[in-house]
Amino acid sequence: MVTLVFAGWLTWLLPGPQMVAVLGFGPVDGVVAIRECYEASDAEGYATGTDCTGRYTPRRPDGPPRDIVLDTAAHDYRPGTEVEVRTARGRAYERSGSAVFRFGTVIGLLLLPFLVLAAWLFACARRGRVADGDGYVFAALAGLVLAIAAAAVAGILVEIGTLVF
Q1: Full-model pTM
Q2: pLDDT at 18 over 90
Q3: Could you give the CA distance from residue 141 to residue 38 in angstroms, rounded to a whole number?
Q4: Is the predicted pLDDT of residue 62 greater than 80, yes or no?
Q5: Is 87 left (phi over 0), alpha (psi -120 to 50) or beta?
Q6: Average pLDDT, integer, range 3-23
Q7: Is 90 helix (H, G, I), strand (E, B) or coil?
Q8: Phi, psi of 32 (to 5 degrees)
Q9: Strands, E, within the chain: which ranges?
Q10: C-alpha torsion angle, residues 64, 28, 89, 98 (rounded to 10)
Q11: What's the number of CA atoms in the CB half-sphere (13 Å) around residue 91?
Q12: 102 to each of 1, 126, 163, how far by Cα in Å?
Protein backbone atom coordinates (compact mmCIF):
# COMPACT_ATOMS: atom_id res chain seq x y z
CA MET A 1 0.00 0.00 0.00
CA VAL A 2 2.80 2.38 0.88
CA THR A 3 4.35 1.85 -2.56
CA LEU A 4 1.10 2.71 -4.32
CA VAL A 5 0.46 5.76 -2.13
CA PHE A 6 3.99 6.98 -2.81
CA ALA A 7 3.47 6.45 -6.57
CA GLY A 8 0.24 8.45 -6.49
CA TRP A 9 1.85 11.25 -4.51
CA LEU A 10 4.85 11.36 -6.86
CA THR A 11 2.55 11.43 -9.88
CA TRP A 12 0.57 14.32 -8.46
CA LEU A 13 3.74 16.13 -7.46
CA LEU A 14 5.50 15.91 -10.83
CA PRO A 15 3.22 15.80 -13.94
CA GLY A 16 -0.20 15.82 -12.27
CA PRO A 17 -1.08 19.54 -12.35
CA GLN A 18 0.01 19.85 -15.96
CA MET A 19 -2.07 16.81 -16.98
CA VAL A 20 -5.15 18.28 -15.28
CA ALA A 21 -4.59 21.54 -17.17
CA VAL A 22 -4.12 19.96 -20.63
CA LEU A 23 -7.18 17.75 -20.13
CA GLY A 24 -9.21 20.91 -19.52
CA PHE A 25 -10.52 20.11 -16.03
CA GLY A 26 -11.71 23.06 -14.02
CA PRO A 27 -12.48 26.59 -15.06
CA VAL A 28 -10.36 28.57 -17.48
CA ASP A 29 -7.81 30.66 -15.55
CA GLY A 30 -7.31 33.38 -18.12
CA VAL A 31 -6.42 34.38 -21.65
CA VAL A 32 -3.03 34.59 -23.36
CA ALA A 33 -2.55 37.09 -26.19
CA ILE A 34 0.06 35.34 -28.34
CA ARG A 35 3.20 37.29 -29.16
CA GLU A 36 5.14 34.56 -31.00
CA CYS A 37 5.26 30.78 -31.41
CA TYR A 38 8.35 28.64 -31.89
CA GLU A 39 9.42 25.01 -32.04
CA ALA A 40 10.48 24.05 -28.51
CA SER A 41 13.13 21.51 -27.57
CA ASP A 42 14.17 19.74 -24.39
CA ALA A 43 17.60 19.79 -22.72
CA GLU A 44 18.96 17.19 -25.17
CA GLY A 45 17.75 19.14 -28.20
CA TYR A 46 14.80 16.92 -29.14
CA ALA A 47 11.67 18.69 -30.40
CA THR A 48 8.87 18.78 -27.81
CA GLY A 49 6.22 20.63 -29.80
CA THR A 50 5.21 24.23 -30.24
CA ASP A 51 5.52 26.74 -27.42
CA CYS A 52 4.22 30.29 -27.57
CA THR A 53 4.98 33.39 -25.56
CA GLY A 54 2.46 36.05 -24.82
CA ARG A 55 0.70 38.28 -22.34
CA TYR A 56 -1.43 36.45 -19.78
CA THR A 57 -4.50 38.18 -18.38
CA PRO A 58 -6.14 36.32 -15.48
CA ARG A 59 -9.94 36.04 -15.39
CA ARG A 60 -10.05 36.76 -11.67
CA PRO A 61 -8.47 39.86 -10.19
CA ASP A 62 -5.78 37.76 -8.47
CA GLY A 63 -2.87 39.43 -10.18
CA PRO A 64 -1.80 41.82 -12.88
CA PRO A 65 -1.27 40.75 -16.49
CA ARG A 66 2.17 39.21 -17.06
CA ASP A 67 4.28 37.48 -19.68
CA ILE A 68 3.89 33.71 -19.79
CA VAL A 69 4.79 30.67 -21.92
CA LEU A 70 2.00 28.61 -23.47
CA ASP A 71 3.55 25.16 -23.15
CA THR A 72 2.82 22.55 -25.85
CA ALA A 73 0.39 24.68 -27.82
CA ALA A 74 -2.23 22.89 -29.90
CA HIS A 75 -1.53 25.10 -32.95
CA ASP A 76 1.06 27.48 -34.32
CA TYR A 77 -0.87 30.66 -33.53
CA ARG A 78 -0.50 33.99 -35.27
CA PRO A 79 0.57 37.00 -33.17
CA GLY A 80 -2.41 38.66 -31.52
CA THR A 81 -4.50 35.48 -31.23
CA GLU A 82 -6.17 35.10 -27.85
CA VAL A 83 -6.19 31.59 -26.32
CA GLU A 84 -8.08 30.50 -23.19
CA VAL A 85 -5.69 28.69 -20.84
CA ARG A 86 -5.33 26.98 -17.51
CA THR A 87 -2.17 27.57 -15.52
CA ALA A 88 0.05 25.14 -13.64
CA ARG A 89 3.46 25.83 -12.12
CA GLY A 90 3.88 29.22 -13.74
CA ARG A 91 3.09 28.12 -17.29
CA ALA A 92 -0.07 28.24 -19.36
CA TYR A 93 -1.66 25.14 -20.90
CA GLU A 94 -4.54 24.62 -23.28
CA ARG A 95 -6.40 21.44 -24.15
CA SER A 96 -4.09 19.66 -26.56
CA GLY A 97 -3.81 16.06 -27.74
CA SER A 98 -0.04 16.21 -28.08
CA ALA A 99 0.31 17.53 -24.53
CA VAL A 100 -2.00 14.80 -23.20
CA PHE A 101 0.17 12.22 -24.96
CA ARG A 102 3.33 13.75 -23.53
CA PHE A 103 2.15 14.00 -19.92
CA GLY A 104 0.20 10.73 -20.13
CA THR A 105 3.35 8.91 -21.19
CA VAL A 106 5.28 10.45 -18.32
CA ILE A 107 2.58 9.42 -15.84
CA GLY A 108 2.40 5.88 -17.22
CA LEU A 109 6.16 5.42 -17.16
CA LEU A 110 6.31 6.88 -13.66
CA LEU A 111 3.56 4.67 -12.23
CA LEU A 112 4.60 1.43 -13.91
CA PRO A 113 7.65 0.54 -11.78
CA PHE A 114 5.69 1.16 -8.59
CA LEU A 115 2.76 -0.96 -9.75
CA VAL A 116 5.04 -3.86 -10.71
CA LEU A 117 6.93 -3.56 -7.41
CA ALA A 118 3.65 -3.55 -5.47
CA ALA A 119 2.45 -6.65 -7.34
CA TRP A 120 5.73 -8.46 -6.66
CA LEU A 121 5.66 -7.52 -2.95
CA PHE A 122 2.05 -8.71 -2.73
CA ALA A 123 3.04 -12.05 -4.31
CA CYS A 124 5.92 -12.38 -1.84
CA ALA A 125 3.62 -11.66 1.09
CA ARG A 126 0.97 -14.08 -0.15
CA ARG A 127 3.46 -16.96 -0.57
CA GLY A 128 5.46 -16.18 2.54
CA ARG A 129 8.76 -16.24 0.62
CA VAL A 130 10.53 -14.27 -2.10
CA ALA A 131 8.69 -14.78 -5.38
CA ASP A 132 10.42 -15.33 -8.70
CA GLY A 133 10.62 -11.99 -10.50
CA ASP A 134 10.91 -13.13 -14.13
CA GLY A 135 7.22 -12.76 -14.88
CA TYR A 136 7.17 -9.32 -13.31
CA VAL A 137 10.00 -8.15 -15.57
CA PHE A 138 8.01 -9.24 -18.62
CA ALA A 139 4.90 -7.62 -17.16
CA ALA A 140 6.87 -4.38 -16.77
CA LEU A 141 8.02 -4.52 -20.40
CA ALA A 142 4.47 -5.14 -21.59
CA GLY A 143 3.31 -2.33 -19.33
CA LEU A 144 5.71 0.08 -21.00
CA VAL A 145 4.11 -0.62 -24.36
CA LEU A 146 0.60 -0.37 -22.87
CA ALA A 147 1.40 2.92 -21.11
CA ILE A 148 2.57 4.52 -24.34
CA ALA A 149 -0.40 3.10 -26.28
CA ALA A 150 -2.87 4.33 -23.64
CA ALA A 151 -1.32 7.81 -23.72
CA ALA A 152 -1.55 7.83 -27.52
CA VAL A 153 -5.23 6.84 -27.45
CA ALA A 154 -5.97 9.50 -24.82
CA GLY A 155 -4.15 12.11 -26.89
CA ILE A 156 -6.07 11.16 -30.03
CA LEU A 157 -9.40 11.30 -28.18
CA VAL A 158 -8.61 14.72 -26.72
CA GLU A 159 -7.52 15.99 -30.15
CA ILE A 160 -10.77 14.75 -31.70
CA GLY A 161 -12.73 16.33 -28.87
CA THR A 162 -10.90 19.61 -29.37
CA LEU A 163 -11.65 19.62 -33.10
CA VAL A 164 -15.32 18.72 -32.64
CA PHE A 165 -16.08 21.04 -29.74
Answers
A1: 0.85
A2: yes
A3: 35
A4: no
A5: beta
A6: 92
A7: coil
A8: -110, 125
A9: 30-41, 47-58, 66-70, 82-88, 91-93
A10: -130
A11: 18
A12: 27, 36, 19
